[in-house]
Every structure is written in C-alpha cells, then in structure tokens.
Amino acid sequence: MNTLLLQPTLKPFQWNHVPKSNPTTIIKNQINPPKSQSSAGKIKRLVLTKEGRTKFNISPDRDFYAYPRFVTHVDDNFIATLTDLYRKRLRSEFEVLDLMSSWVSHLPQEVKFKKVVGHGLNPQELAKNPRLDYFVVKDLNQDQEFEFENASFDAVLCTVSVQYLEQPEKVFAEVFRLLRPGGVFIVSFSNRLFYEKAIGAWREGTGFGRVQLVVQYFQCVEGFTEPEVVRKLGDGVKVDGSVFGWIKGLLGFVSGSDPFYAVIAYKNFKPIYE
Predict the structure, then answer these.
(1) Is 136 helix (H, G, I), strand (E, B) or coil?
(2) CA–CA separation, 273 and 20 (whole Å)
(3) What is the pLDDT of residues 90-123, one digit of tens each?
(4) Does pTM surpass 0.85?
C-alpha cells in the first residue's frame, strides 16, 4: 500500500510587519520624555449654584446698558483708594485690559501705560474714555471668550462690575489665559450695585461674604496665586448692600464713604520688582 506523506504549508516570514524604530527618536524621548498637558487655567470646580447665578431682571444686559451713563458709581474716597492701588501694583510698561469698563478707568493720571484696552457693553461710554487705546464690545454673560492671543496682557482690571457675572468661573479662566506669567488680576467693588442686574449670590451676601465669593472665583481656576484681600471700610455707617440697605441708601437714610474691597491674584507667581 502506497503511503501519502503530507507536509504542512509554511508561510514565508514577513519582515515588514515588524515596526521599525528610529534610534534618534528613542534617544530623544529618553532624554526629553513627552510632557503631560498642564492643568493651569482649568476650572477645578463651579462656585455658584444655578440659583446663585439668577437675576431679577433677566432681559439681555445689552438692552440694560444700551444708553450711556456718564456717572461714577462709587464715591471719591473709593476712587482715590483704587487709583492709589493701581499706582502701587501697575507699571508703566504694562499692557492692561480694563474689563467691564466705562467712560473712566481710574488709572493714575501721571502714568502712561504701554497699552490700555477697554471692554464693556456701551460703545458710547468706552469711546469717551481717554485712557483707552481701543476697546471691544462683548456681553460676557453670553460669550466668555475674547479673540486676544494667549498671554496678551500684564494686568487685567475689573472695577465695581464683578457682581453682574453669571459665569464668573469661565471669565476668570479666560483672564488667566490672557495674562502673561506673573500678570495681575485686580477685582475691586463696593456695596453699590444695580440690584436687579446683580446675581443672586451677590444680592444675598454681606461685605465679607462677597469678598469670599471673589476669593473662590480665583481659587476655582488652577494656577492663580493665593488671593490677597484689601479692605478699607471708610468713615461713618455703611449698609451691607442687602435689599433693605439698598432701599435705605436710596432714601438717604445712611451716610459715610463707600467701603472699598479689592481681591488680587497673579498668574503662576507674584513678581518682585526692584
């Protein structure tokens, strides 16, 4: 009987299936391993609840600010304190963004900054501001992103306006993006406000509570230095900004200078100037 011998079919070895490594790439990766993406500028947590962001007047802010108001919203003592703070914290070579600005920026008259850019909702007010090199009109409650490049400014200022931000976490993160390393963000406020346009968390707060709220805005964004608080409560009796205090102030039942509050933090680190 004939025996049939079967041999298995062997597939030729395919060398091209083995990935080729570039020795140069391997050495480079060993010396400089790929860096993980930085979390700086990211929002770590939300500070406000949905109720805390609500306003009595829910109409678009552009409608509310459609007509110019050529008045100052704080007294002379507040303005003098703020101007002196700017004098100490800002340098003439700075490029400055005046966030939520108006027809006056309260910058020291004797200092000529490299550039001052204004932002607000009323173009007539901004056009009258003599300190602005140019300005942009944007509703930060609708859109929190600017078209400026990363690290465009040495300082960002927000004067007596933080109480109207419905998305403060996103705005503070955007400010972080716009600041250069070591850049400063100065947020100042008093107890005055357009009550119907302030967010609920602000309306219901005291002076101390509002300071802590702004501190939390800074702390919720990765990369800001520990916020510094500046207070000057002024002379005389002042109300706390509640609805009852607002009514008393409107009727002229209280007197004294406006309390001054400022919360200040820097991007990444606080620089030391000689």
Answers:
(1) strand
(2) 53
(3) 999 999 999 999 999 999 999 999 999 999 999 9
(4) no
**Which amino acid would we find at residue 157?**
L
Pure H helices in the chain: 23-31, 61-64, 76-89, 123-128, 168-178, 200-203, 207-219, 243-251
Between the alpha carbon of residue 43 and those of residues 142, 169, 199, 225, the distances in Å are 18, 7, 20, 14
Contacts with 66 (C-beta within 8 Å, 6 or more apart), sequence order: 122
Neighbouring-strand partners of residue 184: 155, 266
| Per-residue DSSP letter, 22 | -
For 181, phi then psi, to 5°, come to: -55, 130
Residue type, 56: F
Asked whether 101 and 120 are in contact (CB, 8 A), the reply is yes
Q: Supply the DSSP string of 167-222, one letter for each residue.
A: SHHHHHHHHHHHEEEEEEEEEEE-S---GGGS-HHHHT--HHHHHHHHHHHHHTBT
Query: Which has the closest alpha carbon to 179: 82, 268, 89, 90?
Result: 268
Query: Is the separation of the CB atoms in 207 and 262 below 8 Å?
Result: no
Count other Cβ atoms within 10 Å, centred on residue 173: 22
Distance between CA 93 and CA 271 in Å, rounded?
A: 14
More confident residue, 23 or 169: 169
**Per DSSP, what are the bridge partners of residue 153?**
179
* SS3 state of residue 115: strand
